[in-house]
Every structure is written in structure tokens, then in C-alpha cells.
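User: Here's a structure from my thesis project, written as C-alpha cells. My advisor, Dr. K., wants to see whether a designed sequence matches the one we expressed. Can you design one independently, without my sequence as a hint?
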């Protein structure tokens, strides 16, 4: 999502990196901060880990960590846009999150997602804005 690369290309990087197969205690394609940042570097992205300080401090594009059922947390892609404010996308969820959603779109509030811990700031990427 954040690299602008085709899904198949990014998936292949995860598989080559050993993350495509189920590992003990982890689902297939489970990843940690360092693995995601390494994949980002292979795709030409400049990534930096930062401590989450709230939506008011969030700017640009990033991969955030949010609470979920097993394994306890989940990655989502977020971007602050001029049109929608904060926009959060996740293929695993039915609805995106927007500060200001487009008309006739089912959505949730970014505040309902409750990011925590560290997040990955991406300083060189395509934008998600539509």
C-alpha cells in the first residue's frame, strides 16, 4: 500500500524473507518492526520507528500498531491527507477510517483504533490519497 509496488512484488519479498510460511506461534506473513522496515528499504522507502504520541502528532504516512484479537495487535496503514484528514486502511477490515469521510462511505473514526507503542514513519513513498 505505501510503496506503490504491485501486491505480488511485495508478497514475493515477504516470502523470500521467510515470512510467507506459518511459523511456530505466528500466522503466515506475520512480521515485526524490523522485518517491515527491511522490506520497506528493499522497496526504496525511508522508514523510521517512532513512539506513538496520538493522532494530533501523527503526520505523513505510516504503519501503525493497533490492538486486536490474537495475536494481540495488528498493523494498519495511516496517512494524514488534506481532504480526509487522517485516513487508515486495512484490507482485513470491512471499513476504512477517516476524520472526514467521502459521502456515502461506511467508515469508522481513527480514534476508535487506539494505536499504541511504536509505529513506522515512512518519509519517502507514494501517497494513499484518492
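Assistant: Designed independently from the structure alone:
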Amino acid at each position: 500500500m505505501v510503496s506503490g509496488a504491485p501486491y505480488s512484488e511485495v508478497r514475493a519479498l515477504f516470502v523470500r524473507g521467510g515470512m510467507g510460511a506459518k511459523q511456530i506461534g505466528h500466522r503466515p506473513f506475520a512480521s515485526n518492526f524490523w522485518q517491515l522496515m527491511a522490506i520497506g528499504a528493499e522497496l526504496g522507502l525511508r522508514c523510521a520507528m517512532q513512539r506513538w504520541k496520538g493522532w494530533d502528532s501523527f503526520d505523513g504516512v505510516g504503519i501503525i500498531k493497533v490492538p486486536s484479537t490474537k495475536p494481540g495487535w495488528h498493523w494498519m496503514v495511516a496517512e494524514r491527507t488534506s481532504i480526509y484528514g487522517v485516513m487508515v486502511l486495512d484490507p482485513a477490515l470491512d471499513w476504512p477510517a477517516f476524520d472526514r469521510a467521502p459521502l456515502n462511505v461506511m467508515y469508522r473514526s481513527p480514534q476508535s483504533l487506539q494505536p499504541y507503542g511504536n509505529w513506522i514513519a515512512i518519509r519517502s513513498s507514494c501517497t494513499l490519497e484518492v
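When you compare it with your expressed construct, this may help: The helical segments are 7-16, 33-42.
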